[in-house]
């Protein structure tokens, strides 16, 4: 029989699931931006720049040189910024996954599935809905069982 969370940690679980939901959406959006940026860079050979001579936001073409593809843009390379931001948000997302996983006392494969949400495009959005519903249903069932002694023995 797997271990179950104690009722005393239910408020912490509610905070953890809220934190997980927020980080899941942010990480999912950042991953979609990163995938879009990769397609632009490696298929269409352009990079996104900002605050340069060409304007607030602009796509700069990349040219092929002997050493590889090089960007011709000036200003801040927003493509690199998206890459770095996703990396840091993924670390925060992993922390949120670990926190929820440990409070719920789930098996280790569940943590691996949650961690994949920040790597596989769109998965974090599906997991966010499914996991939040699962946790909220579980907490409601446990709280109902604690207040109804007949249901607790069923």
TrEMBL record:
Regions crossing the membrane: 16-35, 83-104, 111-132
Keyword Ribosomal protein attributed: no
Chief location bin: membrane
Localization annotation: Cell membrane
UniProt xrefs under InterPro entries: DUF3817_TM
GO CC terms of this entry: plasma membrane
UniProtKB keywords: Cell membrane, Membrane, Transmembrane, Transmembrane helix
Matching Pfam families: DUF3817
Domain DUF3817, chain residue ranges per copy: 18-133
Membrane topology of the entry: Multi-pass membrane protein
Name listed for the protein in its UniProt record: DUF3817 domain-containing protein
Organism: Microterricola viridarii
């Amino acid at each position: 029989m797997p271990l179950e969370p104690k009722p005393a940690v239910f408020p912490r679980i509610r905070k953890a699931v809220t934190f997980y939901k927020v980080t899941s959406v942010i990480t999912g959006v950042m991953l979609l931006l990163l995938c879009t940026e990769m397609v632009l860079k490696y298929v269409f050979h352009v990079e996104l720049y900002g605050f340069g001579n060409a304007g607030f936001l602009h796509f700069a073409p990349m040219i092929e040189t002997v050493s590889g593809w090089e960007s011709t843009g000036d200003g801040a390379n927003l493509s690199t910024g998206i890459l770095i931001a996703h990396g840091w948000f993924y670390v925060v997302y992993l922390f949120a996954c670990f926190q929820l996983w440990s409070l719920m006392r789930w098996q280790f494969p569940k943590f691996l599935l949650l961690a994949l949400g920040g790597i596989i495009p769109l998965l974090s959005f599906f997991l966010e809905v499914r996991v939040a519903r699962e946790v909220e249903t579980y907490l409601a069932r446990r709280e109902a069982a604690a207040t109804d002694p007949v249901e607790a023995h069923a």
